[in-house]
Amino acid sequence: MAFSREIIKKVLQYVQFRVPATEEKDSYYTQIGDTLVRLSNHCTRLYVWDDILEKNPKWKGLPIVSIVFEDTEVTFNEVECLTLKRFRKKPIKVNEYVYNLQGNPQFLTPQYEKLIIQSIKDINEGQYKDTTSKCSPPQVRISRNPINENKEYKTKKDMKKQVIRLTESDLHQIIKESVNKILKEDFQINLTNNNKEGWNNVNKWRAAANELQTKGSVIINIPLDYDNFLHANLMRTERGSIHLEAKGLRKEYTSISDEFKALQDYANNMMNN
To answer: Where are the domains of the chain?
Structure first.
């Protein structure tokens, strides 16, 4: 890759780059304005960027540009270039610009080299503007996590979703919503064809009301921490609210039960005829 290295050497004479402690050879890095810039004779390996950003926290979040001078062969390999060696929640994105010299030392004339050097100096907001018409269309390289790491992260994430913690207020709301759901969904009785089902629903509503009152009683009977005055008062207020809600729902059930007395008589007459 003699031709590409010669061009890189000329760029390094006018723009200050450095070689970080990585396993990657023939690659140089710097910051120009708000953009991180890479200069190399092969396409970027995003796992290398992962290591660099980990060692240089101040660089995290900055846009990245990679400028590549290839001699002949194409150096981009999707798996090798994009796959990271460890899981990363936020992917790394690199705008890459490739000059393929096609094995021709005259592919980039001295005039073109000057234009490239000036364009590198003018890099801004993650954009490099080629003025030679010798550069391939820019490519956006976005990192991928290792397959095993993705599965492990997803498993851990799913396990976290299974952990549920309820406060007394949450329990209060769940009881209310559950009973209201029964009232709305089960209050659908066909008096002509489903009289027996209507009787069963009445009994189910009464059982739900009794269960609700039992739950309210359990909550109210939770021991208070009398050594903590604020905690005790807070618990009394919370329990009182839950108890009143339970009474209100029980009253609602009683009202519904009364409304069904006429239905019961009607159903009895229908079954006896």
So the answer is: 2-145, 168-272
